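If your schedule permits, I should be very grateful for your opinion on a structural question. I have a record of one protein: its chain in single-letter code and its fold written as discrete structure tokens. Would you kindly read the sequence against the tokens and tell me how you understand this chain to fold? Thank you for your consideration; the sequence and its tokens are set out here.


***
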Amino acid sequence: MSEPRLLVPGPREPARFDEAAEPWSATTGFQPVAATGGVPLMDIVERFGTPAYVVDEADVRRRCRAFRAALPEADIRYAAKAFLCRAMATWIREEGLGLDVCSGGELATARSVGFPAERIVFHGNAKTPHELAEAVHYGVGRIVVDNLAEVARLAMLVPHGHRQKVLLRVIPDIEAGACAAIRTGGEGQKFGLSIASGDAAAAVARVLRQPELRLAGLHCHLGSQIHTTEPYEQAARVMVEQLAAIRDTYGIVLPELDLGGGMGIAYLESEHGLTPDEYATTVTKAVVERSAALNLPVPRLTVEPGRAISGPAGLTLYRVIAVKRTLTRTFVAVDGGMSDNPRPSLYGARYTARLIGRRSAMAAREVTLVGHHCEAGDVIAESVPLPSDTRPGDVIAVPATGAYHHSMASTYNLTGRPPVIAVADGAARVVVRREEIDDLLRRDVGL
């Protein structure tokens, strides 16, 4: 690997990505020592302990700028469910992006840093009455209606004399995503309003009858870890056709089309993510061409990247606790596991890993990197090449852990969640502190 890339593009400098960095963040390098954001990773280990999440602020900002550059006429809204804390919300706000939230907690985090309400979209297939009320009270820019019952429930919460802009989440019936558990664009999923069943059309009619609501456009989301542009092209065409059908039925032209997110990233050295430019070229062309064919004004596009912004910016540091060799496998056990990274056990996700902190002249061998939890499925990575002299006390870095790691972390086996350490310009700081035993016991009120 090359020297750590420490330069951060200024606000007017085009964002560029070195594909050789995948799946590591843009400022991560390993010569002369492993470092991210100009901070040696072993310094982080010594100061903050392990396991620890590390987030590269410069990489987050560069990816925000890349989406804005690729889609200058679109609204880019970061999908907060991938990873959100106050620092992340602040970076997103400062980079000029909007925020897609799907819970009261995510909305509260956004509010705590003064995130502009107009730039927030509130999602969710089963929003509670309290969550809807909080969203309306804060004045979020859009609420995505996901079911028929939500129309009247939302309208009742809008103050007299106000109108809440809404989007309708429509099922385009397109299957896309790395595995069935993260595909959300088909008829068999819990999300959205079916075109085929007539629910989507019924929802349009209901919203238009509510003076408290203003139908701004349509929304869809296909799934996650999509590495090709074809599903997005298909979805764009289906959704534009639905906009045309609404025009033909009601004589109104809806100005907005939100195509969600789901762009895939690299988790292994052999993989490459879907770049903002690749996505933008395909989707923009499809929307413009289909709109022209249907004599429809081109809608304003919204996209919601989450993992594609935060995923590659993160890595996790672990300390090796034990090395165990059986007749068929070598296990390297570390001090974290499925409580800080549930994706392998949930989705069969694959990761790579690297020994840091010392040089080894020994040949690599394939090992199974496992956690310390009392669970056979507590596997972080299968068939990972690590030096054959890997031993207790060593430190292992796992890349591409900036999305759906901290946000999905648990306290399984009553293990506290790791801290989040932000690095930038040669400095490291805690943005989410480590969860200690006292934190866990504080929730337990006793007999």
About this structure: The radius of gyration is 23 Å.
